[in-house]
Amino acid sequence: MNEAERNILGLHLPTDPRWVNLAAISLEDILTDHAYCEQKAATSCISLIQRYPDKIELVNGLSPIVTEEWGHFRLVLQELRKRNLQLGKQRKDEYVNKLLQFEIKGGREEDRLLDKLLICALIEARSCERFKRLSEGLHDDYLRNFYRRFMESEAGHYVTFIELAETYIDKEKVRKRWQEWLVYEADIIKNLEPRGDRMH
Ligand SMILES: [Fe+2]
Ligand SMILES: [Fe+2]
């Protein structure tokens, strides 16, 4: 992936600084939300594999990511257990629900595949950005490192989703639709109620 291609990945809007009001956040809530993000990332990859079993690069590219995301879930669970914290209930994910409203549901199969891959890419990009904030803002050295490792891993994932889109769909079309998604996503971020304890 060259520099110009990398630039298309840029999120338009940083997370609201109030999101990382770290003093006010319960670690239990952060880790619980994070655990479900990892679980959802694994299940999204599984769904894509189930939907497109004939797409060899997709199946081969996403299979190891399922393992990685599930490994991430287990790491987060381990942190909760270590600290005597509970894995709470999964809560409504307003960010992801809003993203899904923009997804093309009908029409050509190619367009639907493109949107599914770009949604995954966006979620990875946004997670990466938020893990970066946690890795910079948390006071606990161990947790800063913990989040730095997640940040690097999610960055790799979002590149994989974009590259998969470019494997199956014309690059110019991918670029154009990605730009539309970035605009839409920035709007979601702008209008989301800032919550200190949510991953999104
Ligand atoms: Fe992950
Ligand atoms: Fe990921």
Automatic annotation (TrEMBL):
It comes from the Bacteria. Gene3D superfamilies: 1.20.1260.10. CDD domains: MiaE. The lineage of its organism: Bacteria, Pseudomonadati, Bacteroidota, Chitinophagia, Chitinophagales. GO terms for biological process: tRNA modification. This is tRNA-(Ms[2]io[6]A)-hydroxylase. It comes from Parafilimonas terrae. GO terms for molecular function: tRNA 2-(methylsulfanyl)-N(6)-isopentenyladenosine(37) hydroxylase activity.
